[in-house]
Each structure stands twice: as C-alpha cells, then as structure tokens.
Amino acid sequence: xxxxxxxxxxxxxxxxxxxxxxxxxxxxxxxxxxxxxxxxxxxxxxxxxxxxxxxxxxxxxxxxxxxxxxxxxxxxxxxxxxxxxxxxxxxxxxxxxxxxxxxxxxxxxxxxxxxxxxxxxxxxxxxxxxxxxxxxxxxxxxxxxxxxxxxxxxxxxxxxxxxxxxxxxxxxxxxxxxxxxxxxxxxxxxxxxxxxxxxxxxxxxxxxxxxxxxxxxxxxxxxxxxxxxxxxxxxxxxxxxxxxxxxxxxxxxxxxx
Amino acid sequence: xxxxxxxxxxxxxxxxxxxxxxxxxxxxxxxxxxxxxxxxxxxxxxxxxxxxxxxxxxxxxxxxxxxxxxxxxxxxxxxxxxxxxxx
Lengths: 257, 87
What we know:
A: alpha+beta; B: about 15% helix
C-alpha cells in the first residue's frame, strides 16, 4: 500500500496498479513481428503483407531475395508489438499451437527481419531446433511455445546480448526469431541465430551459441542437462547452420546439447 | 466524477502510456515481482531484458485485443477442432 502511494505520488501507474488506466508500459529490448502460414493462407491476398509491409528494410534484388519473396508471399504478417503489455494482449487473443491446423507455422521475428534464410540478419546464422512427437506433447507444446516466446522477447536466450561479435559492428543479440511448426506427426520448435560457428572460430561464438541451446533445453523446455531426447519422431536439441541445412544429403555438422 | 450515460470511447491506455525509461524507479504493488536486477545492469535506452517469472505476471491482466490485430479468419488463423481430428 505504501508503494502504491509512492507510485501515485510519482504519477507512475503500471498495469499492475491500474489495469485499465495505466500510464507506463514496459518496452521490449527489440520490437517483434508475428507471422503465420498454413495451407489455408496459400494464395490468399488478404491482408497483404510481407515485402510491401517492410518499408524500413529496403531489400536488394538478388536472386536469393527474389526466392525469399516468393516464399514470403504465402506468409501472413499478423502484428508487430514493442511492449510487454502488447505481447500479452496478442497472446490472449490468438490460438495456441495445439489448436493450429496441420502444416502451420508461427514465426516470431525481430521487426525488420523476415523469417527466411535469405534475410541479411539470417544468412550467416543457423538454428537450434527440437522435434517432438505430437501424441506425447499435445499437452506440453503450448507452454513450450509460450516459454520460447518469453525467452525471445525477454532477451534471455543469449547470455550476453550486448556482447560484440568481434567484427566491429555494434553489439547485437544473437537471436533473430523463433518458430513453432505443426506437422501431422510432430511439432518443431526453432530458435534462429544471427551467426553460426565455423570450424576456424576461436572467438567464443561456439560457447555463446551453445549457451543459447542449453538455455532452450533446460530453462525453456524443462529438460535436464544430458537428458537424451531422441527417438521415433523426436530429435535432440540440435544446432545446424543455414548453410549446412542447404547442403541436403551431405553430412552436416550438428551441435547437440 | 464523470457519469455520462454513454461515455465516449477512451483511447486505450496502451496507446497513450509512456515507455518506462528507468526500471529502478517503477514501484510495483506489493506481491508483484520486479524484473531480475542482474538482467539490466547498465541497461539504457529502454533496452531491457525480462525474466519469465516477471513476464508471466502480466498474463492474467493484459487481455485486451490489440487494435491492429486483423480478423483471424481473414488470414486463415482459425482453431481446428482437435477432438474431431484425433478420432
């Protein structure tokens, strides 16, 4: 009560002080955009979205980006937000992954980054992902996705989001976005990163990437360190660079935590 | 106090709320946890990090549908009946 009086004295009312008449909100580390696709969105022209919705990122017309534009045509931009309060307003008014149709995806990416390999922010990166059998995880997937989104917007995946990558560019968080996918037999959750370690790397990037994977496995998904997760329709928590993902068939260097 | 029979729609608090620039000066009511301090040492320009426990406290409070949310059926984002699918 004393604190309430103090808040009142300073004129600061959070949503906890007054849910309908608050006057401050909690900014997120970065603004985010939620995207969605499913077989039902293909070919729909309503509300028109991706590339045209991004005046702030002029995209050079390279072949890769042209391909990304084709890919992005079927992906619908749902909304952008930049505060904790707005995130929850959205969360409480859309459907959770367990109720999505089959072959659907939610993509939650930082504003200005499209959920495609070809985006500047993604092209040198990779992803942590886990595949979970649908039958055993129908009851868990909504919480797993919520916790994944909270770690993304709360910026707790990257142990040092303000650490420089050593290239002289301003420090940026490693995380570019998170995805949940529904398939007939399984769910997949993915965390996309701006960079991926290479064999010659000596600058701590691999440790930093592994830190993201461990946080994902233990704090977000609730597994213990060293717990084996692979099995029929299930994978470990594993990292693959987008460049290695493109080399289909070739032995890819996965990192597993 | 103002007790008009048909009040004009108020702008949502979200639209007019200002952005917190100093988390340390926000006095949360009793029973509400502040964000973990260690996540925001030297934080500036509203670049704040928030732990899950802090964020989850908003879930049951912030329920208002965002003004900018498109009709979900227009983008094919409709719930499927899982009960009938699994039969």
